[in-house]
Automatic annotation (TrEMBL):
GO molecular function, one term: ATP hydrolysis activity
One of the record's GO cellular component terms: ATP-binding cassette (ABC) transporter complex
Family classification: Belongs to the ABC transporter superfamily. Spermidine/putrescine importer (TC 3.A.1.11.1) family.
Superkingdom as given in the UniProt entry: Bacteria
Cited function: Part of the ABC transporter complex PotABCD involved in spermidine/putrescine import. Responsible for energy coupling to the transport system.
Catalytic activity: ATP + H2O + polyamine-[polyamine-binding protein]Side 1 = ADP + phosphate + polyamineSide 2 + [polyamine-binding protein]Side 1
All copies of domain ABC transporter, residue ranges: 8-238
Matches recorded under SMART domains: AAA
Name this polypeptide is given: Spermidine/putrescine import ATP-binding protein PotA
UniProt cross-references to Pfam families, sorted A to Z: ABC_tran, TOBE_2
Organism: Falsiroseomonas bella
Length: 366
């Protein structure tokens, strides 16, 4: 199979259904060979964008460009894109090999070349020994691989994925995430994936575009989005976060201080970042895993006392809710291995975190 990807660009993409705007002026560029995930809650516009890219939905405004060429008006069959649907859409009366061969038969490819391409595609997804089976004789994960092989067999310009793992159980989904990422590396194709699963987006993607109410809220590398969310929505949707509300007390060269009730919170910021003025409201996002439980002799740049409200054992760690006087209930995630104590409801604790652990974020627009 070819190992060259193609670049895709969306310019001001908009889709309206009467008075309802499903996609609102979205501009985005996907580089050759990248794995981009469109991430957002139900109704955020991610699937509509994918359907516009595929050609199944005509945008109200804007353009879809492939390698700089406007393909907005091109019908789906002329775009040469592979697509994997949520339900796989395999033909139940066809064998695995016949399902994979179907796009080649439509293209009137000769039998010998068709057979060779099917063999290579099934080998790529490690299903060559299942070529003569029917879809009902396969597991859900195997059916998903057949759908991937069928979408890749004709060397598509792009591979579009519409929540292809959502029907699988959690363990199998995690395994296939690794396989899909490895497959992307092997074929070198440009992949565009749609999901509402944050873990899937983080683990699979080179870049993630987060959508809400039809708008592109933030896009970038997974680590950058997780560590530096710009808004409360991004911080809350991509993972979990505590939000500290307060008022800026004073600014200093390394950052600023926020008063949240009677608690002073030190916040570090980049040297070139603007310093907020004293008296202005501030909102900080603090990830649960960046909070530590302090021992009697330990100190931290930020510290607060509290009591455990509730806790859960998650195998690899504890998820603990701690009630504090000024900051409300804080979620804390601690590794269970080597934990210095067994959590109990009502237990007094002291929490600490560094000035770099939290991130200033903007409140979401109404």
């Amino acid at each position: 199979m070819s190992a060259t990807g193609h670049a895709l660009a969306l310019h001001g993409l908009t889709k309206r259904y009467g008075s309802f705007t499903a996609v609102d002026d979205v501009s985005l560029r996907i580089e050759r060979g990248q794995f981009l995930t469109l991430l957002g809650p139900s109704g955020s516009g991610k699937t509509t964008i994918l359907m516009c890219i595929a050609g199944f939905v005509a945008p109200t405004a804007g353009a879809v460009l492939l390698d700089g060429r406007d393909i907005t008006a091109l019908p789906p069959e002329k775009r040469d894109f592979g697509m994997v649907f949520q339900g796989y859409a395999l033909f139940p009366h066809m064998t695995v090999a016949e399902n994979v061969a179907f796009p080649l038969r439509v293209r009137r490819m000769g039998a010998a070349e068709r057979q060779e391409k099917v063999r290579a595609a099934l080998d790529l997804v490690q299903l060559d020994r299942f070529a003569d089976r029917l879809p009902r004789q396969l597991s859900g994960g195997q059916q998903q691989r057949v759908a991937l092989a069928r979408a890749l067999v004709f060397d598509p310009a792009l591979l579009l994925l519409d929540e292809p793992l959502s029907a699988l159980d959690k363990k199998l989904r995690a395994e296939l995430q690794e396989e899909l990422k490895a497959l992307h590396r092997r074929v070198g194709r440009t992949f565009v994936n749609v999901t509402h699963d944050q873990e899937e987006a983080l683990s699979l993607s080179d870049r993630v575009a987060i959508l809400n109410h039809g708008k592109l809220v933030q896009e970038g590398a997974p680590a950058a989005l997780y560590e530096k969310p710009r808004t409360r929505f991004v911080a809350d949707f991509l993972g979990k976060s505590n939000f500290l509300h307060g008022t800026v007390r004073e600014a200093h060269p390394g950052g600023f201080a926020v008063m949240a009730g009677g608690t002073r919170v030190i916040q570090a910021i980049a040297p070139d970042a603007p310093r907020p003025a004293a008296g202005t409201p501030a909102l900080l996002s603090l990830r649960p895993e960046k909070i530590a439980l302090l021992g009697e002799a330990e100190t931290a740049e930020n510290a607060v006392d509290g009591r455990i409200l509730s806790w859960s054992y998650l195998g690899a760690g504890f998820a603990i809710n701690v009630a504090t006087q000024d900051l409300g209930a804080l979620r804390v995630t601690l590794p269970s291995w080597g934990a210095p104590f067994a959590p109990a409801e009502g237990m007094p604790v002291r929490l600490g975190w560094s000035a770099t652990a939290s991130v200033p974020v903007a409140e979401d627009a109404d």
